[in-house]
Amino acid sequence: MDVLGAWRAFVNVSERGSFTEGAAATRVPQSVASRRIAALERHLGERLFDRSSRGAMLTRFGRDMLPSARRLVRLADDMEHEAERAKLSPLRLAVPDICAVRDLARLDAEARGNGIYLDFHAAAPAERAELVRSREVRAALTAVPPGDATWSVRLGLAGAADLPVATVYVETLRPGRAARSSRRSRIWIQPEDDVPHIRDRMFRIRDAVGLQPTQVGVSATLTAATAEVLGSADLLLCSAGQAEELGLHWRPTGEIQLVRGFEVSAAAGDDAERIRTRLWHAIARCLGAREREGGAPSESRA
């Protein structure tokens, strides 16, 4: 028995004195309203109405039950209203501050189509992780090693001039081999890649091929790093999509393959699962991530 539906029909019929009008107010056929109320009467063991040609008249028991029934229906309506408000409440999501406005707008639009309303907070990797821990955001796209990643973005090196090689080997920047200028070319690591699984590996390859310590540096901002590259023969560690956006020429690296890894972290597990499963492709586009074999994760992913 639909208990709430039966009490709703009871309240509407009692207030209108008619099964026909009460059923219309309940938005069900008259026969359905009658069956629901009859089932309720059997459940309670008492009649709620005296049915006659004059309409639906409440019995004494029915009059006694009406105030409680009204409170129940009003509470159910309030709960439905709160549920709708909760679904429309924005989910604050910390995202990489390198995400373009256009890509975030597309992600936002697709999220709305999936019943998720996002409020973006752009931040660097360490800050995104801290925002989740402190619950200042409900979820974040956090930087993780490639093996732990849901989304992966391949990195390479990009310069202002069109590079004459298909692959850039870091060793070609070694002192004595860089012939384009007397100033040694440098590789700039932007803040988004200032994480151990990228930065430390880049430093190790620098040392392994004999570059000077100052030839690989971490820039305070992407803007500053890009300015250094645009005004010299320096190179920026970045993705192919990011290089295109910045007007740079991108090539993969030879000695090492570096990958940005992203995972969704959330204070509540259901938020992470909802974002991961419903917005997998939209987030992949926003991050410039490659499609992985098997596509998006299924709803059953733990």
Give the structural class: alpha/beta
> What multimeric state do the chains show?
single chain
CATH C-level label of the largest domain: Alpha Beta
The low-pLDDT segments are: 178-182, 298-302
CATH architecture classification of the largest domain:
3-Layer(aba) Sandwich
Query: Alpha-carbon distance between the termini?
Result: 35 Å
Beta-strand share of residues: 15-25%
Shape: rod-shaped
Compute the number of strand runs: 11
Strand-and-helix sequence, N→C? HHHEEHEHEHEEEHEHEHEEHH
The overall pLDDT average reads: 89
Number of domains: 2
Helix content: 40-55%
CATH fold assignment of the largest domain: D-Maltodextrin-Binding Protein, domain 2
Figure out the total of helices: 11
Sheet bearing the most strands, described?
A: 9 strands, mixed
Q: What's the Cα radius of gyration?
A: 31 Å
Write up what this structure looks like.
This protein has 302 residues and is of the alpha/beta class. It has 2 domains: 86 residues, Arc Repressor Mutant, subunit A; 214 residues, D-Maltodextrin-Binding Protein, domain 2, CATH 3.40.190. The chain is built from 11 helices and 11 strands. The two termini are 35 Å apart.
